[in-house]
UniProtKB/TrEMBL annotation:
Quaternary structure annotation from Swiss-Prot or TrEMBL: Homooligomer; upon reaching the lysosomes. Interacts with MCOLN1. Interacts with NEDD4; may play a role in the lysosomal sorting of LAPTM4B; enhances HGS association with NEDD4; mediates inhibition of EGFR degradation. Interacts with PIP5K1C; promotes SNX5 association with LAPTM4B; kinase activity of PIP5K1C is required; interaction is regulated by phosphatidylinositol 4,5-bisphosphate generated by PIP5K1C. Interacts with HGS; promotes HGS ubiquitination. Interacts with SNX5.
PANTHER family the UniProt entry points to: LYSOSOMAL-ASSOCIATED TRANSMEMBRANE PROTEIN, LYSOSOMAL-ASSOCIATED TRANSMEMBRANE PROTEIN 4B
GO cellular component assignments: cell projection; lysosomal membrane; multivesicular body membrane; plasma membrane
Species lineage: Eukaryota, Metazoa, Chordata, Craniata, Vertebrata
Subcellular compartments: Cell membrane; Cell projection; Endomembrane system; Endosome, Multivesicular body lumen
Species of provenance: Cyprinodon variegatus
Name of the protein described by the UniProt record: Lysosomal-associated transmembrane protein 4B
InterPro entries: LAPTM4/5 (IPR004687), LAPTM_transporter (IPR051115)
Length: 225
């Protein structure tokens, strides 16, 4: 009987790429995104007046600093950690070290769980969508048109959008998991072949002992008349 893990196992992703190639591309893509975010955060630390997003009292009724120095430092540390994790996954897929892929896979599971909780919160508390729209600044494009939409249609659109994101993230999780299985399987196969070869060399007796060859009779002696 084929297990569900083996049924969904495949060495290809995106219909053409190998799972190793897909994991390497995914790791590099995540590193580029986090590197851009890191540069923006470092620029905000260097020049906080220019990059700080300040909401005026005419928009929300209060003065709110969305990003202060503490939050920027925390976001910078998270970006550095993400670059490290993505670099480990890229290196592990390239050098075929399965253990290096595990942190990136765990991050994908954590990110998928957070997005799932967001979808559940929208279903349980549908009014949170309207509350979120009310907190947006007045200059946000099409804010009034979106808020005038029926709440049921708005929640359905949000759930449809989150569902598409979750489906794509689940597919990427499957690609990374298949890459981990492929790399770990190759390492196990190489070890087994090595051990089997050594055991065969040690355990098999020599050919002369394994195949009993009957001794040849000496030639008959000639008798003199």
């Amino acid at each position: 009987m084929i297990s569900p893990w083996d049924r969904w196992y495949s060495t290809s992703c995106c219909l053409c790429c190998h799972v190793r190639t897909g994991t390497i591309i995914l790791g590099i893509w995540y590193m580029i995104i986090n590197a851009v975010v890191l540069l923006i955060l470092l620029s905000a630390l260097y020049d906080p007046v220019q990059y700080r997003y300040h909401l005026t009292s005419s928009e929300l009724g209060t003065d709110i600093d969305v990003m202060d120095d503490a939050n920027i430092c925390i976001a910078t540390a998270i970006s550095l950690l993400m670059i490290l994790i993505c670099g480990m996954a890229t290196y592990g897929a390239y050098k075929q070290h399965a253990a290096w892929i595990i942190p990136f896979f765990c991050y994908q599971i954590f990110d998928f769980a957070l997005n799932t909780l967001v979808a559940i919160s929208v279903v349980v508390y549908p009014n949170t969508v309207q509350d979120y729209l009310q907190q947006l600044p007045g200059t946000f494009p099409y804010k009034e048109d979106i808020m005038s939409t029926n709440n049921v249609c708005l929640v359905f659109a949000v759930l449809l959008f989150i569902g598409c994101i979750l489906s794509f993230k689940a597919y990427l999780i499957g690609c990374v998991w298949n890459c981990y299985r492929y790399v770990s399987g190759r390492g196990t196969t190489e070890v087994l072949v090595y051990v089997t070869t050594n055991d065969t060399t040690v355990l098999l007796p020599p050919y002369e002992e394994a195949v009993a060859i009957p001794p040849k009779d000496p030639p008959p002696q000639y008798l003199e008349a």
